[in-house]
Amino acid sequence: MVCFSTPPAAAQEAPTAASITAKTTAFLQKFVNKEGKVNYAGIKRNPAQLQELQQAIAVFDVAKAEMADQYAFYLNAYNVLVIGEIVAHYPLQSVQDMPGFFNKTRLEVGGERLTLDQIETDKLRKIYADPRLHFALVCGTNSCPRLSRAAYVGKNLFTQLNDQAKFALLDPAYVKVDEGRQLVKLPEIFKWYEADFSTTNKTGVMYVNHFRKDARVPTWYAVDYYPYNWGLNDQK
């Protein structure tokens, strides 16, 4: 009698930029609402999509990707990994309830172990010098811009980042214009990352107005920064 041994499981295909973006969009559309709030409880109950994405992000060969796809990959990876860490510790009220969330916890991304701060600074800010990324990265807080329900895609990235910046900077809850007091209140990222915005030769209100063609803030208005809200961007 001839015996047949069980063949080894087929090797899993290496993730591509296209496959990661497709899976990211499917994940976001399932668990993020139109207001950009995340259903963390739902992901906790049904983590399969998140886990599959985390595995793909961990082993993605960044060096083989085009420059624009690398940019999109790290934007998507940051947002997914933030959600993953929150889900791992859920329920919680704020990312501040997780010591080292930004600068100590190392996560698997593109064959490296990086903190969220390293992804933001070393893989994005230092390389692309593009302040629009501050409207695309969402760190799980209420003061972050709305989380997009579509993954960033290399070939569409310029348009996507412009649209994301415009959406945030036209949001009256994000850029708070008080005509009576001739005052505009900006999110604190404009203070924290002023050097990033200065690379465009526009900071503060001048940068905001670049994306508010039909609703410009008068440049003589006084500028203030409203306190950052560290509460979780939870649908609950």
TrEMBL record:
<dbReference type="InterPro" id="IPR051548">
    <property type="entry name" value="Grx-like_ET"/>
</dbReference>
<dbReference type="GO" id="GO:0009055">
    <property type="term" value="F:electron transfer activity"/>
</dbReference>
<dbReference type="Pfam" id="PF04784">
    <property type="entry name" value="DUF547"/>
</dbReference>
<dbReference type="InterPro" id="IPR006869">
    <property type="entry name" value="DUF547"/>
</dbReference>
<feature type="domain" description="DUF547">
    <location>
        <begin position="67"/>
        <end position="166"/>
    </location>
</feature>
<protein>
    <recommendedName>
        <fullName>DUF547 domain-containing protein</fullName>
    </recommendedName>
</protein>
<dbReference type="GO" id="GO:0045454">
    <property type="term" value="P:cell redox homeostasis"/>
</dbReference>
